[in-house]
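Whether sequence alone determines local backbone shape is best considered at the level of individual chains. In the encoding step, the backbone of a single protein was reduced to a row of integers, each denoting a local shape. For completeness, the protein is quoted in full, as a sequence line and a line of structure tokens.
***
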Amino acid sequence: MRNVPILLSCLMVVLTFASSGCLDLTKNSSNTAEPPKAEPPKPMTRDEIYGELKTIISPYRRAILGQSGLNDTIQKSIITELRDVQLKHAHNPEGAAALRDIADDLVKYAQEAKEIERWKLVKGCVDAHALLNMESHLLNRLDARAEEIMASPAVKVRGYMEDLTSKDFFVFLEIRDRKTGEIDTISVQEGDEFDQLRLVEVHANKNEVVLQYLPMENMFFTVEGVSKLGSRPGTI
């Protein structure tokens, strides 16, 4: 019984130590607050999505202005990036509105390309517009026109020759198949028909010839000679 006070004293010391430790632990845990949760990103606005789309189709605008060309690699890149943005944003109202805005731009670009007779560019704009699942009767007509013209051969004038004895006048033309890339050089006279074309008139003094594309009614175009325009192809 003599040891009871001693044991009680020891027990109180242990409880006091434990209590102090618990208080310290509680104090430490209260200082380690959880970091605030990051807020989810705000959805993009119509203007922001439209700006992203505008950047994607900017090669069309540069081609219309003559600042750059449009090749198959660029066209494929445009289509791929447009599809990605469409899949990402088409199901929200802001994205759907931006896609309609960019579809209107593509119609405008196709019309401008048609005015300068850049038919491959017309076709590129039409294909991009079709990807967006937008309807345009104007683009349907332009698409048909572009398909027909792109099926025609590309023509360059390489030179002229007059036979001093017979007085016959010949034009040397370079004909390139747009689909296969095959090139053929021929000599023709006014009235000759070749490769679905007919040589209508020769204006040697102006260094140009007038051709008719036979599969299309009333489809006439002028090709300027190389000495005047370097190696630029004809207007189709």
Notes: The beta strands are 154-162, 169-176, 183-188, 193-194, 197-203, 208-213, 220-224. The first strand starts at residue 154 and ends at 162.
